[in-house]
Amino acid sequence: MNSNTFFSGAWSFALVTSGISMASSACANSSTGQNENPNIVIVLADDLGWGDVGFHGSDIKTPNLDLLAESAIQLNRFYVAPISSPTRAGLLTGRYPNRMGVRHVVIPPWRDYGIEPEEIFLPQELEKADYKHRAIIGKWHLGHSRKKYYPLNKGFSHFYGHLNGAIDYFSLEREGELDWHNDWESSKDKGYSTDLIANHAVNCIKEYSKEDNPFFIYVAFNAPHTPLQAKDEDLKLYGFDPSKPRFGKGDKTGRGNNQQQTFAAMVTCMDRGIGEIIKALKETEEFDNTIFLFFSDNGADVGSSGELRGRKFLEFEGGVRAPALLSWPAQLKGGRTINQVTGFVDVMPTLLDILNIQSKAEFDGLSMLPVLSGKTETIDRNFYLGMGAVVSNEWKFIEKGHNENMKMESDMLFKIDEDPFERNNLISLHKEKAAELKEYIKPYDAIEPSRPLPDYGVGRDGFKPPKEWKVTEE
Length: 474
Known about the structure:
Layout: E1 39-45, H1 63-71, E2 73-75, E3 78-79, H2 84-93, H3 122-126, E4 133-139, E5 158-162, E6 173-174, E7 177-178, E8 181-182, E9 185-186, H4 193-208, E10 215-220, H5 232-235, H6 259-283, E11 290-296, H7 317-320, E12 321-322, E13 324-327, E14 336-338, E15 342-343, H8 347-355, H9 369-372, E16 382-386, E17 389-392, E18 396-398, E19 412-414, H10 431-445
Parallel strand pairs: 1-10, 1-11, 2-14, 3-15, 4-5, 4-10
Antiparallel strand pairs: 2-13, 3-12, 5-8, 6-7, 8-9, 11-13, 16-17, 17-18, 18-19
Helix pairs in contact: 4-6
């Protein structure tokens, strides 16, 4: 597999040429100024697999991400958790999510649970460096039942989007109740959620760029996570025939003729939205001095892992190795690929290192600035993947029995730098290395959070959601 393979079909896509509809905004207006510290824009896809982007050889149309990949840094070995909430928790704290009780399961609608207040979140630290505007736009998924779990109590100055995962893309509902919010209030905006998220991010960029302060925007798309729902105009890019049946049973809103057609249309719509965000940064002359990071929260579910082994829920590469791009033209040389092991828990310590922000937080992640800047070729480190798994620049070890979804007959050891597809288990040939890595993961696997998250289905029977998912409890 060639990580620099680009989609080269005859199809031509008009890059970010459509107008931007104005979603309601809480963004501020002020005088024009120039930022000294960089802006930070983190774009997170939901369930986008390694093989679902053009720059990894997919037939799915992702022209904006492909174009960015040509000029940005491709983070070829960027690791995440194999499911959603853990990745989001680690991204925003720089800490392994099992410390917060969210290792093997997400936070479902019926759970009175969230990341506790003592955890230090990235936007809380950015406020120290004069980041006046710290917005989260899109999916939260880190606690919704009490105000203390709410993003506006985690350092964000603005929230626009949804608290739960797996909302309906058109009705914006989960469990039959509207889950769309503008700060503390319900939002009555109408539209397709991917478009609403992208449009609101564009609006915030245009408003925030008028001020002297740098800004932080975390754009967390719910696409292309299920339910599979796409707009007809995007489905038609993949051969949708409205005269033929739409797939599935029950409500077929947004469904195409088959699942893969619908999934591809959802990815292309998200890619268009990302293009609009990049366009806004360029039009406001903020792009060069913006740290722009894109990656997916876990591996493929409906989509493709490419040649990587495994999928979502698994610690094989297809579940935890995400497509990832980093751009900061003012300071970092682009147009290159980095094979350094890095990932979601490194984002916060890297950003704080760039900004010289001193934090009281105890990070599991490391600053990758020495590698990104070219001062150091590689950093020798182990990256704990959870559930008995660890990866380094050269090796990957997975202990049998931790993840019941992984059908393993024995412990596994891969020379991952030479065997990224995990085809050859070398456990019998390198017993000392396997023992060393097994010993390394013991203290991490042994972590007992103060409040572990119950299994997904516990509490589902008889649950009734609050009206419009309004937060009432402190």
